[in-house]
Amino acid sequence: MVKLKWDHTVHYVNSLELAIQKFSENGLIAFQGGSHKHWGTYNALSYFDLCYIEFLGVENRELAERMIEPNEVVRDSIKLLPSHEVLSRVALRTDNIEEVARHLTKLNVDVSPIMDGKRLDAQGHLIEWRMMTITGDYQGLPYPFVIQWNETDEGRRERLIDSGIIQEHSAGEVTITSAEFQVNNPAAVAIHWHRLFGFEMFEQNVSSESDQWILVVGTQTFVFIKGDKNRMQKLVFDTSSSELKGKEITIGEGEYIFRGGSR
């Protein structure tokens, strides 16, 4: 099984402009990404090195509803918006998407064909990638999807820094450290994702009544806690910013939690 990395997180929103404004008010850079002309969606982005947040909205609902490709990310946008502006799926990055597809298929997971993705950025430049989604959910929690960019991490980081897309936020140093998922059965979900994606797993005793199950994704973690929402609830950040430490930013139903001491 090839190594997977946390690439980005999808947050469905009705207004890209309001999401950008909310981040800007707190010293965080977010900007218009571009349109997915074949899917009817568009996005705004906020980068924390190569791990980023994708605020995803429906630009052309009729086109999104007519989409033929088995793209669960777009299908979710139609199901959830405008009623539920929620944090949703995480994208896992690979440099060998065919091998990941073979591995998941052997585990009887219903994966889509590998699709070509593309959009124009705000400057009109063509951005391209390959991706596949996983149909359905596990105990109510949507699966991650898998993405492969057409360049190496090192080359992509260098290009994004040179173009000003990756830059230091005005609030100071900020890094994404974990995603928190509220699920009915944290142990079962963690074990299932561990089996599918190969992430190291451990249990953390929080109290006599509650445990957390944690998957290690490089230097970051996916944290599963008990609850009835069966979706991602929070993104957690480390920061050196005195203005951000201890702050909680809410956009729709998604929560962004900022804690001390950036690594």
Give a written overview of the molecule.
The protein is of the alpha+beta class and 263 residues long. It folds into 2 domains: 5-162, 2,3-Dihydroxybiphenyl 1,2-Dioxygenase, domain 1 (Roll), CATH 3.10.180; 174-260, Immunoglobulin-like (Sandwich). It is 22% helix and 42% strand. The chain is built from 6 helices and 17 strands. The strands form 3 sheets. An 8-stranded mixed barrel has the order 1-4-3-2-6-7-10-5. The chain has a 7-stranded mixed beta sheet with strand order 12-13-14-11-15-17-16, covered by helices on one side. The model has no long low-confidence stretch (mean pLDDT 93).
Helix/strand layout:
Elements: E1 5-12, H1 16-25, E2 31-36, E3 41-48, E4 51-58, H2 61-66, H3 72-80, E5 87-93, H4 97-106, E6 115-121, E7 126-132, E8 137-138, E9 141-142, E10 145-149, H5 153-162, E11 174-183, H6 186-197, E12 200-205, E13 211-217, E14 220-226, E15 231-239, E16 248-251, E17 254-260
Parallel strand pairs: 1-4, 5-10, 11-14, 15-17
Antiparallel strand pairs: 1-5, 2-3, 2-6, 3-4, 6-7, 7-10, 8-9, 11-15, 12-13, 13-14, 16-17
Short summary of the structure?
The chain is of the alpha+beta class and 263 residues long. Helices cover 22% and strands 42% of the residues.
